[in-house]
Batch of 4 targets.
Target 1
Amino acid sequence: MEKNKYNYLQVHSSLYINSNTRMLMLIIYLLFSAKSIYFLDRIHKYPFINSFVLLVRTIRVTQISYIYYKKKQLLKNHSELSSIISSNINGQCLIALRQGEYKVINFKNKKVVTIFPEKVQLEDVQKQINNLIKAQSCDLAPEILNWNLQERCIVESYINYRIPFYQFKSKKKFYVEVFPALVNIMTSQVPKVISSELYFQRLVKDIHELNNKYNKNHKHVNRIKAFISMIQDNYERNVIGDIPLVFSHGDFCDRNILKSKKDIKVIDWSTLGKRSCYFDFYFILFIRLSEARGKYKNNIAKNLEMDLINFNHFIKAHLDKVGDLSSKRNYRYLFYLEFITLRLEEFSVNHDKRIDITQWIEVFEYYEEIVEDRKSLINLGYGSN
């Protein structure tokens, strides 16, 4: 591991640039080698603006380069800068992640190094390393080049593919590209068949334990409990029988999908696990639902059930024990429970990071009102007090 210290200057909420990087090289790297950096292409939540990819990227690169220039001048003049991250890893860009870890990207060497902070226990770092090793069973995952537990780092190959943006109107493109990727992930390991009833009960139990143990916000604790109570009251017992728990990415969304003209890759496998077969499918669509506004949000919500039916037809040809959608509600509830469990597990690892699960419950409620014509939890008597 390199012994020199490199200073990375903040130029965006999560993006930092190495102070040794020359301005011309920075512009070249950001324009041509940083296709996988999401916010360089996506600055607006309305799809018609995001469709002008090259224009948006050029504007963002210009803005970031100017901010970098100003901060580098301040650094030269020995002005105090609070937004600096120092690392012994040399690269051109550093991206800070939500759990406190960060990624250093070296465009020249085509490597990305993930570094975990000291507050993360070594056993949790080992878990992340193990997850990335498990992800190698899927040919969509980037290659692991090296790792060092004591230095809390993992080295992967850098993939300079562009992040696709699936507009609401381009359903065919979404189905053609996303459905095969989901099946590729699901079938990378042998599924585990389990009673849906037992799995449902286990998820509820895990959520209550994690919620009471790690969530110190009593209002949030009660809000989560109310939502779980609603699910328990409306879950249809003994309808879907045994289900397969399949290999799941856990954070499958547009920004973790990288695509070239002939190939597709999926990055950031830290949340992988065995989950219900619709988890990753629901995840990408609910992420889009949470980020959409106005008519786009309503359109995504109203068409999600049809997307589910189409996906069900697609995966039945590749996976046993899927069967018909005898209860779309139950599969949806399993997703809600798995999602909340995943977020609470993140909270247990990083106590300093406030993870507002209640915002996601609002998204789920919004969808329930549309698909089930069901009022909010408060109106149903599941108050948060």
Target 2
Amino acid sequence: MAFGVLGVFLGLLLEVSTHGPTSVPRTSWKHQDVNLTEFSEPGIFNYSTLLLNEDKDVLYVGAREAIFELSMKNVSVKKNKV
């Protein structure tokens, strides 16, 4: 009896996991189709955290070695580095 209940549970779990919603990006585009401005700093890697502060017009970018405060209007303009 216990194996029957376990089998039904595993079957339902498999059914839900294989027919669940697929991950679809909100927006996608080709790199050459848009005007992008890139930011990078020599010797800094693993940019992973972004925080947008619209009141101050800044974008905070966190990396493994530093935190940058960038202009929201032009990310190539570095306002501050910690």
Target 3
Amino acid sequence: MSDKKISKYRNAFESSTEWGLRRKFLKVHHDKFDEDRLVCLSMCYVNIEVYGCTYPAPVMKCIQRLKAELK
């Protein structure tokens, strides 16, 4: 997925730190989920990493697995 295509997902309220995390997540995982699911998971990922949010166990496990692939 190109940077131009990914940039359409940036929200006006996102800081550069939040967007950097989310952009990388979107780039790495763009081929694994449909668009809506990918965007939702990317938002959850940032909320977990930046704000310490928690989600139901299946979501947390999914994000943990996807996070491991970002390294």
Target 4
Amino acid sequence: MTREFEEPFEDPLKVVRKGYVDSPMGQLHYRTCGEGTPLLMLHMTPQSSLQFQNTFPLLINAGFQVIAPDTPGYGMSDKPESPPSIEEYSSVFTYVLDSLNIKTTAVVGHHTGASMACELAKSYPDRINKIVLHGVPLYTPAERQERLSALHVDLSPKKDGSHLLDYWNWIQSRVGEKASLDACHMSAMHAFQAGEKEWYCHQAAFKYDMEKHSKL
């Protein structure tokens, strides 16, 4: 028995394709979809490229090719052996661009991703033609030091599972009613996926002098 459709069963341009590329920090996972103007999207910590998934259809319809990697240590990318700097984090994304034969791209960065987007534009000006920053971690030296002193959230497992509820309550105390339950759930899942190295990218962002490096 055959089935016929008046319209294609699946629009190939709207299929989110996943891939891996080798980098100095191990295998880097990414999602890509659409055709047209390249747009590199860098997520916040401890999320992954899934943070942007609801925007993919809108961006595809607007004529973009979305490239959304998982930062090393988050999502499905390998974990670095030691805490990288923002400069080291940002450099690995060029391996994704190279694997997709993308010479130049616009870049969007959210929070820690904004720091990496800024550094990419600074270190690779011939490859970044536009930059969009959201939730920029622009702190004074005192604020950065304060955040560096409180990096570690205890994610170690407990026999009674209370570590799961403890982290959930911690998220709720930070976002209150500002975020949906689905968003809170995704944040918790990503944090536990990152595990004991969850704090690596936050440390890099809080050590990074955004005001100094944003003078492109």
